[in-house]
Design brief:
- With 584 residues, the protein is of the alpha/beta class.
- It is built from 19 helices and 23 strands.
- The strands form 4 sheets. Strands 16, 17, 18, 19, 20, 21, 22 and 23 form an 8-stranded antiparallel beta sheet that branches.
- α1 runs antiparallel to α2 and α4 packs across α8.
- The radius of gyration is 24 Å and the shape is globular.
């Protein structure tokens, strides 16, 4: 696009922007003549996909703002009216986290829905993402909208959509909604009622305490040991998010009196003053929690991300040191615990993703449970679980993805960091009752089902240029797949975009939907997987190796050997990526 065309497009957007703040912001960019900034803001529309919208706050179609939210909601409402005949009686749940602009975006969402004749079922206070997903099912709503950017940095916000089945949308609904959004008029022409008008017409209905009470009762029933512990000491951080009050209530009801929130991070604050990146996986994010755990000599540290759909766990080993568990280790612990403890399960079923550890599948096979690997993203786990429950009468027990996402049972059809934390505390109390530690239980599982070690490396490339860089890396690997990674020969290559798996000259078709993911299965049971993030400007590399335990070998020795091999694998693959155009 020419500079003149770019400026004309920006002027047209500014005139149609219903928010004076972002209209003025764009006017300043135009006056400064910052064409690079304009080009990024107008590189395209913020893409609506199966995770909804997520982006940096600011003016322009490639940013999160009120103009984008209003047009998105109008498109969603019109699609729902075309697809769900009783949407006007069922309504749409609207929840929001504590980020900057979340209140304004949630209000606009409710007011546009009301103008379209769809009742907005609005949480009157901040709501965790899993509570919003639960409400969609509990209230039998046609859909739900959650205004959140999950664990992204402070400058982000987002808009997540759930279908009436309580799960995030998947094709064809994502494309149908996106097409409906494209057909919506300019933002300043989108009709919306005021909150007062919507309330007066019965189209803005505030949700009372009953929904939250029902959620808490439901997640308390997920526990297996269900006796709590008067002595287990637990540190918890809400990471400046919206999970704090819910975790306190759940832990009190479950019988954990030694539950200590990190005070500096317990209240919602969209500025995230104690962390630059409010993701428990990021360096430094758990520093305050670790310090509190040392002061209290706590055995367990639990952390939610800001919208409380993810869970991170630190545990204290027999030697007294705290260790952060990987997402895969938490998934394996919870999966094994839920499959083996409590009442006998009838046709149990567990699921994970193609970038998570294969160990859950091996455990499921040995315990006689059904198992699936699906594409990355909890939408695929939840929708596949619904499909198999209905078609095969399976009982969904547990699903997880290595990026700290877990769901227990059927209460929430998405990842739920609150119920997962509650059940993990239950697991820890059960271990304590046996005179064991959580790490001791993990070792039991690994000695029986194998020692797997894994790691992830992320590389961030921001803006439109960064997206092009990520695309070039993926296409370079697609054109030139490696025959070996370091000392590991590649036995099989999977390209989920083309739907092909190659083993030598043999080609097989993959059954999963197309996705921009490549995987290399290595001789000896290892795997390397790469994909662009769907919610952040990153390319992600996933690594896993299986280590053979020698007879009588101490676990620490085997783990050290495995992790040494893993680091060599990572270094070799990153070198290959740089050969294929990744910036140093």
């Amino acid at each position: 696009m020419s500079n003149t065309g770019l400026r004309e497009q920006a002027e047209a957007w500014r005139r149609a922007d219903p928010d004076p703040t972002t209209a003025e912001e764009l006017a300043r960019v135009l006056a400064a003549g910052d064409l690079a900034d304009l080009a990024d803001r107008f590189a395209g529309n913020l893409e609506f996909g199966t995770a909804g919208l997520r982006g940096v706050l600011g003016a322009g179609p490639n940013r999160m703002n009120r103009a984008v939210v209003r047009r998105t909601t109008a498109g969603l409402a019109r699609y729902l009216k075309a697809q769900v005949p009783d949407v006007a009686s069922r309504g749409v749940v609207v929840g929001r986290d504590g980020r900057r602009m979340s209140a304004e975006f949630a209000e606009d969402t409710a007011c546009v829905l009301a103008a379209e004749g769809i009742p907005a079922l609005v949480f009157s206070t901040l709501a965790p993402t899993p509570l919003t997903a639960f409400a969609a099912l509990h209230l039998e709503a046609a859909a739900a909208v959650m205004v959140t950017a999950s664990h992204n940095p402070p400058e982000y916000n987002g808009y997540k959509v759930y279908w009436g089945n309580g799960a995030q949308i998947i094709p064809p609904h994502d494309k149908g909604i996106a097409a409906a959004i494209d057909a919506v008029e300019p933002a300043n022409q989108v009709r919306l009622l005021t909150p007062a008008e919507a309330r007066q017409q019965g189209l803005w209905r505030e949700l009372g305490a009953e929904v939250g009470e029902a959620y808490l009762k439901a997640i308390l029933r997920l526990r297996k040991y269900a006796r709590g512990s008067d002595t287990l000491s637990i540190i918890y951080t809400a990471m400046h998010g919206v999970g704090g009050v819910w975790m306190e209530r759940a832990m009190k009801a479950a019988g954990f009196p030694r539950f200590f929130p990190v005070a500096e991070q317990q209240q919602p604050d969209g500025a995230f003053p104690t962390v630059r990146f409010p993701n428990p996986e990021e360096p430094g994010a758990m520093d305050l929690s670790s310090a509190a755990a040392e002061r209290e000599k706590a055995e367990l540290v639990l952390a939610n991300d800001p919208d409380a759909d993810r869970l991170a766990v630190m545990v204290r080993g027999a030697e007294g040191r705290l260790r952060m568990l990987t997402g895969n280790e938490v998934g394996v612990l919870l999966g094994h615990y839920l499959l083996t403890q409590g009442t006998q399960l009838v046709r149990p079923y567990v699921a994970t993703t193609i970038v998570s550890s294969v160990q859950l599948g091996q455990i499921a096979q040995e315990l006689g449970a059904a198992y699936d690997e699906v594409l990355t993203g909890f939408k695929w786990i939840a929708n596949r679980a619904l499909e198999r429950e209905q078609g095969e009468s399976l009982q969904f027990v547990f699903g997880y993805e290595e990026a700290l996402g877990y769901t227990v049972g059927r209460v929430v059809r998405d990842k739920d960091g609150i119920s997962a934390a509650l059940v993990f505390a239950d697991l820890a109390a059960w271990c304590q009752s046996r005179g064991a530690t959580v790490l001791g239980y993990l070792e039991e599982i690994q000695r029986r089902h194998g020692l797997f070690v894994g790691a992830q490396r992320n590389f961030t490339f921001k803006g439109a240029e960064g997206a092009q860089t990520i695309s070039r890396i993926m296409e370079a690997f697609r054109r030139e797949p490696p025959r070996r990674v370091g000392e590991h020969p590649v036995q099989r290559t999977k390209d989920y975009k083309t739907g092909e798996a190659r083993t030598g000259d043999k080609v097989e078709r993959l059954t999963l939907p197309p996705s921009n993911v490549l995987a290399y299965e290595l001789e000896g049971g290892g795997r390397v997987t790469l994909r662009p993030s769907g919610t952040e400007p990153k390319i992600k590399y996933y690594f896993e190796l299986k280590e053979q335990l020698r007879s009588g070998e101490p676990m620490a020795q085997a783990r050290a050997r495995a992790e040494g091999r893993l680091e060599k694998l990572i270094d070799a693959f990153v070198a290959l990526a740089r050969d294929r155009g990744q910036p140093a």
